[in-house]
Amino acid sequence: KGLTVAALELKTVSDELARAHYAEHEGKPFFPSLLEFITSGPVVAAILEGPRAVAAFRQLAGGTDPVEKATPGTIRGDLGLETQ
From CA 31, how far away is CA 2, in angstroms rounded? Predict the structure, then answer.
């Protein structure tokens, strides 16, 4: 995809950061379990560089729609265990 990893950091996500990051989902039925999951342990934060890096990584990660399975060959399609 032409992406370069510029930085990686293992982080613990605070409740405050999680609420800010996922603010668009507040009020949805899965919001409490999303907060619980994302704050339950460390996450890997990455800075990726390259042409259209955001779009390229979204394609590599795979879809998030729980109605449709993520495409095989994507991170979610190959490694995802469940969807909300």
Answer: 34
What is the spatial distance between Cα 83 and Cα 53, in angstroms, rounded to a whole number? 24
Show Cβ contacts of residue 30 under 8 Å, excluding neighbours closer than 6 positions. 84
Nearest CA to 15 out of 33, 34, 39, 37 is that of 39
Query: Do residues 49 and 70 lie in contact, with contact meaning Cβ atoms separated by under 8 Å?
Result: no
- Which pTM was predicted? 0.73
Region 41-69: what's the mean pLDDT? 89
Of the candidates 22, 5, 9, 12, the residue with the CA atom closest to the CA atom of residue 57: 5
Q: Which two tokens stand for residue 23?
A: 């603010």
